[in-house]
Amino acid sequence: MALETRRRAGADDGGLHVLKDAILAPAPGEDRSDAPERTTHATFREPAVWDKPAQPASGDAVADLREAIRGKLAYAIGKTPETARERDWFAATALALRDRIVDACQATDASVPNKRVYYLSLEFLIGRLLSDAMNNLGLVETTRAALQSLGVDLGTVEGAEPDAALGNGGLGRLAACFMESMASIGIPAMGYGIRYDHGLFRQTFEDGWQREAPETWLAEGNPWEFARPDATYTIGFGGHVTMAAVSDGVIRRHWYPAETVLAVAHDVPVVGWKGKTVNTLRLWKAESEAPVELAQFNGGDHVGAVSARMRAEAISRVLYPSDSSTAGQELRLRQEYFFTSASLQDLVRRHVAERGDVRSLHDHAAIQLNDTHPAIAVPELMRILLEDHGLQWEDAWHVTTNTLHYTNHTLLPEALETWPVELMERLLPRHMQIIYLINWMHLEEQGRHGRQGETNFAAHLASVSLIDESQGRRVRMGHLAFHGARRVNGVSALHTDLMRSTVFRDLHALDGDKIVNKTNGITFRRWLHNANPGLTRLAVEAVGSGVLDDPGLLRGLDAFAEDPAFVKRYAAARFSRKQALAEIIAERTGIEVDPSALFDVQIKRIHEYKRQLLNVIETVALYQAIKAEPHKDWTPRVKIFGGKAAPSYSQAKLIIKLALDVAKAVNDDPEVADRLKVVFLPNYSVSLAEAIIPAADLSEQISTAGMEASGTGNMKLALNGALTVGTLDGANIEIRDHVGADNIFIFGLDAAGVQARITETNYAQKAIQASPRLGAALDMIASGRFSPDEPNRFRPLTDDLRHRDQYLLTVDFDDYWRAQRQIDAAWKDQARWWAMAIRNTARMAWFSSDRSMREYAEEIWRVQV
After folding, report:
1. pLDDT one-digit tens code per residue, 631-651
2. What is the reaction catalyzed (predicted)?
């Protein structure tokens, strides 16, 4: 079917050509007459930074881009070069590059892909996009020269782009990496999420306490996106369900929502490597069907007249609103259903317009649920198939369970999402009916298999039921996603094994082939090429430019691990990044650090299981040791922390406060001088990570074994040459297997050891008694040494460690101290250190998200690459 015919039929193209409808139309208020003449195919010029930095791009290309930027500045932004701000230059540059993305779209085969992937995620932590677009289009040096000819610095323009903080951490960043990799290796795909007005909060510190402020990334618009008012869907909430007989023995139910909200699409192009493929990230904005009740407004109730609008728009207002209240829980559920329903309506409409028969959906669409946030897709897709398309239950269930796939990201009980049945029945009454029926048929099947006579059959039914009735009736969203998916995957080998033996043990026993492993990966284009151009240039010179296309060629760097000339240049490239980070630290915290010191980095969401507290306690113990032996030859070390605590997570906020109070005491102590500095960088973000990761010497991956699903920060840091100190948790195990046990520092209990230890009594007290160093550090913290204005401030932390210690910090402390002193010794042997670092960079190729996506495509989605 021709593109124009499909458009008239109501379809929105996705995958390789989904942007054409929107991109070819001007953005609101934009004059496109100044755009350069479009070519019939996308061309790629390898950026000069990968070869010789001094090599200029062709004069014509620079002139074309310069005039395009100048035109956008005048006609789209309405500014002259003399009046333009840095943000204006960024917007003009982004719009000019966006035209070239259109060129890449035009170059793509316009035929309908045989199968598309739809990636549903509540988070897409995409960060800044300018550097990605330039790099993947091969226009880094062209853009630099074009801006320079206008008297503008590219670095300044890049810095003016706000971070799109549409995620909390690894989950959202993984989704962003996967979207980029799918475009780079040619998988037709669309990502679906929410266009939050305010992403993850902006973090500041007030007297050492975390304060949250709205993240206003959309304050001046988003030049990358295309508003798609033609792709608008109605989302219902509440109301009632009716039944009607349509034929003998056939009863149809119909849902009449009490409230409806509009989901309006906004498309962000995702450019693949060398611009060969462009996929789409479609983000939904919530709007009210009746923005203003005019009669009510004219009657004087000006606030009440817009209340419905405000209630609707609240859905896409803030990422992760606090769920500590009943209203907050309801808003979270509204968000999840809102974006899931809009996405399913969109992709089903597209499929029907292209293929005609909804029964073939699973043959042409693979839907991936990124964690349980979109798990409501199971009953929602059933509802769409049953009510909107008239399928029988068995046919709808066959389509649903062969189209949906589910990625689990956590084994933590508190993170396994459940919803009160009462809330679900009130907000989504039709969906609860469907869930009840799915569950009834599921439990009946257990009886048909003759399990009634088994011992503890009732307990078995309770464990596999979609409804948890142990502490109030709640819908288990993980169980729902598991039951409705064709494949369920973990994100590291250990995590997948633990899924089979713990949270999904009984469900796994019913379907032993459903759970598969797909270890996470990262995009090397973002986390090596863009974030560390000096190291990338060195790799290209050593093993050839093919390494830009094939990360596997990085393995060739192994041969240079002990080559003095290469080691010297590798160390120099790393040192330059440490100098840059030292400047950022001084600018943002006022703390001066020595770039020649060991940069010890822990950057991630603040959570007790990630054990930032273990790092802080070891810092206190090291501080005490230096004070006790000030003349000893201590390895100079800078401890660098970054991360945000959830607004309602008081214990995590207290850990941040302790880290900052310890930092103040240590950094102000003249006896310690430059042998130990502690830094907590505020407002951790993707762009800040791009500055920290290439400068890190040591990567702290110290979560309690068995509790981190995978991690991706561990991969980014190791790729850039940081050595890992970590537990045998998540992907740390696979990193050890790839880089070699001699090139990583492992400590602490493994997952089996953790499970054995937590069954013992008084393990924390025993560990503290056996470790005078640990006891002294805890005593110093508890005594008020770091909080003289409030001596008992940190007692909640130390008391918890002495009496509960759920995450086994006390048990692992001594081995952690041992590993850290091994690291001190290794740092003093610089030849050995850099050899280990080079081997980490060389051997991380397997952790490319390109590899992950190929595995998903072949083994889960059944998509040809």
Report:
1. 999 999 999 999 999 999 999
2. [(1->4)-alpha-D-glucosyl](n) + phosphate = [(1->4)-alpha-D-glucosyl](n-1) + alpha-D-glucose 1-phosphate
364 and 452 housed in the same domain: yes
Q: Does residue 409 carry a catalytic annotation?
A: yes
In a 13 Å sphere around the CA of 680, the CA atoms on its Cβ side amount to 29
Residues 539, 479 share a domain: no
b (16+ CB within 10 A) / e for 414-440: eebbbbbbebbbebbbbbbbbbbebbe
Q: What is the pLDDT of residue 250?
A: 77
For 406, the 3-state DSSP assignment is strand
Told to judge if 115 belongs to the known catalytic residues of this protein, a careful annotator would answer no
Extract the runs of DSSP E, i.e. beta strands, from 596-686. 598-603, 637-642, 676-681
- Report, as an integer, the average pLDDT of 363-380: 98
The active-site residue, picked from 716, 843, 851, 854, is: 716
> How far apart are alpha carbons 595 and 597 in whole angstroms?
5
Angle of helix 86-107 relative to helix 130-137, nearest 10 degrees?
40
Which pTM does this prediction carry?
A: 0.92
Q: Are 807 and 612 spatial neighbours (Cβ–Cβ below 8 Å)?
A: no
Q: Which of 605, 639, 657, 677 is catalytic?
A: 605
The whole-angstrom separation of Cα 133 and Cα 529 is 12
Burial class (CB in 10 A: 0-12, 13-18, 19+), 459: exposed
Per-residue pLDDT of 82-98, as tens digits, reads 999 999 999 999 999 99
**Sheet order of strands, 467-468 included:** 418-420, 474-476, 467-468
Catalytic, out of 610, 611, 675, 854 = 610
- Concerning whether 79 is annotated as a catalytic residue, the answer is no
CATH code of the domain covering residue 75: 3.40.50.2000
Marked catalytic residue, from 198, 350, 405, 604: 604
DSSP state of 110: -
Note the pLDDT of residue 447. Answer: 79
**506 with 592, same domain?**
no
Same domain flag for 480 and 611: no
pLDDT, tens only, 216-264: 999 999 999 999 999 999 999 999 999 988 776 778 899 999 999 999 9
| Residues 470 and 560 placed together within one structural domain of the fold | no
Q: Is residue 523 part of a domain?
A: no
Query: Looking at the domain assignment, is residue 358 inside a domain?
Result: yes
Single out the catalytic residue among 277, 712, 724, 810: 712
Catalytic: 518? no
Residue 204 φ then ψ, to 5°:
-130, 165
558 & 689 share domain: yes
Kindly state the average pLDDT of the residues 674-698. 97
Question: Position 243: which residue type?
Answer: M
Q: Which two tokens stand for residue 269?
A: 């192009």
E strands of 590-722, at which residues? 598-603, 637-642, 676-681, 698-701
Task: Judge whether 72 and 81 are in contact, CB under 8 Å.
Answer: no
Query: In the block, which residue shows the tokens 């042998």?
Result: 675
Spatial distance between the Cα atoms of 331 and 191, rounded to a whole number of angstroms: 22
Tell how strand 240-247 and strand 723-726 pair up: unpaired
Distance separating alpha carbons of residues 778 and 794, to the nearest angstrom? 10
Cα-atom radius of gyration of the chain, to the nearest Å?
A: 28
Q: Specify whether 639 is catalytic.
A: no
537 in a domain, yes or no? Answer: yes
d(CA 540, CA 529): 10
* 524 occurs within a structural domain: no
pLDDT band at 450 (very low <50, low <70, confident <90, very high): low
Q: Which of 362, 409, 644, 851 is catalytic?
A: 409
Closest CA to 270 of 110, 117, 114: 117
Average pLDDT value for residue range 142-170:
95
Residue 752: count other Cβ atoms within 10 Å of its Cβ. Answer: 11
Active-site annotation holds for 712? yes
The mean pLDDT value of the chain amounts to 91
In this model, does residue 37 exceed pLDDT 60?
no
Count of domains observed in the chain: 2
Domain region containing 774: 529-847
Comparing CA positions, the residue from 264, 255, 429 lying closest to residue 346 is: 264
